[in-house]
Specification:
The complex is a heterodimer of chains A (about 160) and B (about 575). Chain A is of the alpha+beta class. Helix content of chain A is about 30%, strand content about 40%. Chain A has two domains: about 1-80, Alpha-Beta Plaits (2-Layer Sandwich), CATH 3.30.70; about 80-155, 2-Layer Sandwich (Alpha-Beta Plaits). Chain A is built from four helices and nine strands; from the N terminus they run E-H-E-E-H-E-E-H-E-E-H-E-E. In chain A, strands 5, 6, 7, 8 and 9 form a five-stranded antiparallel β-sheet that branches. Chain A has a four-stranded antiparallel β-sheet with strand order 2-3-1-4, with helices on one face. The longest helix of chain A has 15 residues, at about 130-140. Chain B folds into three domains: about 5-170, Rossmann fold (3-Layer(aba) Sandwich), CATH 3.40.50; about 190-360, 3-Layer(aba) Sandwich (Rossmann fold), CATH 3.40.50; about 375-545, Rossmann fold, CATH 3.40.50. In chain B, about 35% of the residues lie in helices and about 15% in strands. In chain B, helix 18 (about 395-405) links the parallel strand 15 and strand 16 (about 415). In chain B, helix 11 packs parallel to helix 14. The relative contact order of chain B is 0.11. The model of chain B has no long low-confidence stretch (mean pLDDT about 95). The chains are: A alpha+beta (about 160), B alpha/beta (about 575). The interface of A and B includes residues 25, 62, 63 and 65 of A.
């Protein structure tokens, strides 16, 4: 099962390789990984999507905790959270398909960010499943290139607060 | 305050930590450090190979419980140390390894003797640092010692660029180490403690399964108190030997691949397995799906990752072993309505069963009037030292015979590379132990293969007047691999025979040490007697039965009840 882990860690050189080394060395899987600074510039937030049964995810969480530079690990599967990913797609846009491509990205609330005679570059943001959906729809029209950011997440504010 | 050099600051940090002895080897990048060391009361033991420096620091740490320190130069000095670091990491040994690094301006330029040692050792250190700013130097070293010795201990490497240790700084006042993100959990949860206590007095076939964590947290006394008050039989892992007196009636000896028949049967039949500072290693469990299937499991460990990693645990207690055992013992003390002695009578059938196993298949070997059996050598070493010597080992058959036939009654007397299984560990570790305790008897039980991996350290032992004794169980084979080839590879002895091995007696002499040889059983006793009476390094060459095997043996991947016996 897929799990999304949000990891707060010290923003120091080599921290990323401690985490990725842990995953590769212990045979854990990384589906996607995103990392950037938080409000506090000494702290980074990393979002890791991994796959595994409960035992594996428990080990991943504990092993991450064990790294000295890791401050906090949250398995977001336990709490409601918002998930976003962005994709940039270069899609064939010839006379016959230009209008169709625009209709599709309109439905997905995407944007055209670059135009050429034969293609559009499109930006779409949403949950990973929405990104998958837009890719599936555009694939028959002709996708020439894809770049994805990987998933970032934020836990939802608790309703009582 | 007057400014001092970075190197002097490093020395002052070592003094702050109470370090008296370090192990190392100089080189271009650490000349400043060695220069600064000349003017202080810290002894540097100059080894002959950097791997040995780290093993010696490791041996020092194991016998004293203090943080071992090694000092290596950049590049090959650092990489030579990696095996030692990985050895200490696998066995959770507190250690700080200082490595020189090229000047900061050259880092990343493929400079002479430059390696990314922080990158290389990331997976085999508890934590490591490249000190990039002069202001970070002292706080980093203080943090390194704190990390190495706290929680589940382990080696910490600090990489020191040459220009940085040559710079001048004001030594900052001593301040407690604060690490918000690193807070090991020492105290057991009282609810878990009570749960464990209740289970332990109800179990009908309980077993204490004791590992190196008990040694590391100096919890032997607490463990022994628990075992004796509840009268629970004890088995120890390779790393746990000495945590409970091996001569005590409740001791079932070691468990696992080369453990005793009794210990393995007892674990298999147990209804409550109480794991203390042990990690359910594959050499202990054998085939996981068949391991202790009838038992509920209580697991005390300071490292949460150890819990439910290999075997599902029913009552986890994340805590320092000493604290947890104290909490358990005082729980019983505060429940005086529970009559422990009376409760222990319910275990009578269990003791009878265990006695039957002990009687049926004790640890044994077929002795011979002429040929030297390795087990006899170890027994004789044990007898002549009264079981009180500090024993280090190499890896392979020598290690297993030592574990089986030397009976340990005290913690911190047994130095062996359990997790990594590093040949060449024993001699430098023995030197580290002897440096810590000059007056004690220290013996490296070795094989003829392993001893050649760090034989050059005989010179170190001589130079620092470490009268270590090396007992080579010489079968002219890489015996453990040969045993596997005999049993599972149709006796095809591929690359396990060394056609040329040195004449160890002559070799000892070349180093200014004493060489003794025994080729017949009757010579073993006098050779050991002479060695123990000699105030010098002694190499004892015991020409043993060539194809003797280590038994019992659980073949890899089999259940621990499927032992091959003598």
């Amino acid at each position: 099962m897929k799990h999304t882990l949000s990891v707060l860690l010290q923003n120091k050189p080599g921290v990323l390789s401690r985490v990725t080394g842990l995953f590769s060395g212990r045979g854990f899987n990384i589906e996607s990984l995103c990392v950037a600074e938080t409000l506090d510039p000494t702290v980074s937030c990393m979002t890791v999507v991994s796959k595994g049964d409960v035992g594996v995810i428990e080990q991943i969480t504990k092993q991450l905790h064990k790294l000295i530079d890791v401050i906090k690990v949250t398995d977001l599967s336990d709490v409601p959270f918002v998930e976003r990913e962005m994709v940039l797609l270069r899609v064939k846009a010839e006379a016959s398909t230009r209008a169709e491509v625009l209709r599709v990205i309109d439905i997905f609330r995407g944007k055209v960010v670059d135009v050429s005679a034969r293609s559009y570059a499109i930006e779409v943001t949403g949950s990973a499943s929405k990104i998958e959906a837009v890719i599936d729809i555009l694939r028959p029209i002709g996708i020439k290139e894809i770049v994805r950011t990987g998933v970032i997440t934020m836990a939802r504010a608790s309703k009582n607060k | 305050m007057a400014k001092i050099t970075g190197a002097e600051a490093v020395v002052r940090c070592l003094q702050e930590e109470g370090v008296k002895i370090i192990f190392g080897y100089p080189g271009g990048a650490v000349i400043d450090l060695y220069d600064a060391l000349m003017d202080c009361d810290i002894t540097n033991v100059l080894v002959r190979h950097e791997q040995a420096a780290v093993h010696a620091a490791d041996g020092f740490a194991r016998v004293t419980g203090e943080v071992g320190v090694a000092l290596l130069t950049s590049g090959p000095g650092a990489t030579n140390g990696v095996t030692g670091i990985a050895t200490a990491y696998c066995d959770s040994i507190p250690m700080v390894v200082l490595t020189g690094q090229v000047p900061r301006a050259l880092i990343g330029n493929d400079a002479f003797q430059e390696v990314d040692i922080v990158g290389i050792t990331r997976p085999c250190t508890k934590h490591n640092y490249l000190v990039g700013n002069l202001d970070d130097l002292v706080p980093t070293l203080r943090e390194a010692f704190h990390v190495a010795r706290s929680g589940r201990p382990g080696p910490v490497l600090v990489d020191l660029p040459k220009d940085l240790i040559a710079s001048r700084l004001t030594f900052p006042d001593k301040a407690p180490v604060k690490m918000a993100n690193y807070q090991p959990n020492y105290k057991p949860h009282p609810v878990q403690v009570e749960k464990a206590c209740r289970k332990m007095i109800e179990a009908r076939q309980p077993v204490l399964y004791v590992g190196g964590g008990v040694i590391l947290s100096d919890a032997s006394r607490e463990l022994t108190e628990l075992a004796l008050s509840l009268k629970i039989p004890v088995t120890m892992t390779l790393m746990g030997l000495g945590a409970f007196p091996g001569t005590h009636q409740l001791s079932m000896g070691m468990l696992g691949m080369h453990g005793t028949y009794t210990a393995n049967m007892a674990v298999a039949e147990s209804d409550l397995l109480i794991a203390v500072g042990a990690r359910f290693d594959d050499r202990v469990t054998g085939k996981l799906s068949d391991f202790a299937t009838k038992a509920e499991i209580i697991h005390i460990d300071i490292d949460p990752t150890s819990i439910s990693k290999n075997v599902k645990v029913d009552v986890p207690i994340v805590a320092d072993c000493k604290n947890a055992l104290r909490a358990i013992n005082s729980w019983y003390a505060s429940h005086s309505e529970i009559d422990l002695a009376a409760a222990a009578t319910r275990l009578e059938p269990w003791y009878r069963q265990i006695d039957q196993w002990k009687e049926r298949h004790p640890l044994s070997y077929t002795d011979d009037p002429e040929i030297i059996k390795p087990q006899y050598v170890v027994e004789e070493l044990c007898r002549q030292t009264g079981g009180e010597a500090i024993i280090s080992t190499e890896v392979g058959q020598n290690q297993m015979w030592a574990a089986q036939f030397y009976t340990f009654n005290h913690p911190r007397h047994w130095l062996t590379s359990g997790g990594l299984g590093t040949m060449g560990y024993g001699l430098p570790a023995a030197i580290g132990a002897q440096m810590a305790f000059p007056g004690r008897t220290v013996i490296d039980i070795a094989g003829d293969g392993s001893i050649q991996m760090n034989i050059q350290e005989l010179a170190t032992a001589r130079q620092y007047h470490c009268p270590v004794k090396v007992a080579i169980l010489n079968n002219n084979y890489l015996g453990m691999v040969r045993q596997w080839q005999e049993l599972f590879y149709d006796r095809r002895y591929a690359s396990t025979t060394m056609d040329i091995i040195p004449d160890f007696v002559d070799l000892a002499r070349a180093f200014g040490a004493v060489g003794l040889r025994a080729t017949r059983r009757s010579e073993v006793e006098p050779v050991i007697r002479e060695a123990l009476a000699t105030d010098n390094v002694v190499l004892m060459d015991f020409k043993i039965e060539k194809e003797e095997g280590v038994y019992p043996m659980v073949p890899a991947g089999k259940a621990t009840t499927e032992m091959l016996l003598v």
